[in-house]
């Protein structure tokens, strides 16, 4: 077993609970390292890293923070300090896993530190808000959220059982011997939507037959972000970014944006990538009645009761082409862009609801006009994106790039 389990939290207000899980973890023969993120009160027990050290790492002296008496400021400083300490400890090889407990403030501090750690490092957060929207706390990392059921305010028959489950869970994660990601085969990242599934499935099968392992990410915003986070972490060695639809949501205001840095990680890492324009014919919203009023006159399609799709316009497609070209022009490694001239999704084909030759033509023209051909190769095929030949061509291209790399 490498590294200790970091126990991070406010030892002034929840010290008894943290001492309880510390003792349980250590009863398994697993070493711990405690970081105090509390501000005002005295700690229930002595940590390895004090709140004064955390505050200083966050940019302020503890005394000044107490004197300011600003809860929001205190939380931000202690959060940044916790992130800094956990990151430094991990770099030194001292972190085998991490656990925290808390309400909204404690969860924000604890999970910020967890998100600073790579995917694969065990992370357990016992939280009063774990049954709600956890996206702000989990982000794109493998944070295990455990609902506390009752408030974390003292020990009782129920809370002891829940905290014990959490303590033994993180100890088991750390003591277990999970296989290293990508230890056997090079990992390839691929992006998919329902309307590009046939393409990605065929490409995946082709790459797997050549000895690669594919991680397929659902292009729902967090999916693209998760893939790019793993690229930055060094896990992914090549990319089949077939479904770049998240940029349509980012540009137009849909609910599945991957953020303004989407399509940058592979470029910075210099890894081989094959990119296409999958599902750029659509912007995503929730149920039909949630579509913003300003879009009510647009071409809408109810994909299912919870998802409404909106067709991108000629101008939006032109702009998407410019944006994607600007991202790909920054590449540091072998890159190819594949254009399916007969449609970018299952519903963007002749006879289908989003068939839009003018819109697609604007997208393709903007890409051709703005791409730096000395950096990015463009391959155009007279098929739709889900044609088997298109999928195999992209897979073959990436396999050739990987071999050369």
UniProtKB/TrEMBL annotation:
Residues 4-177, 185-402 form the UPF0261 domain. Coiled coil: none annotated. It comes from the Bacteria. Pfam families: UPF0261, UPF0261_C. InterPro entries: Tobamovirus_resist_UPF0261, UPF0261, UPF0261_C, UPF0261_N. This is Uncharacterized protein. It comes from Acetonema longum DSM 6540.
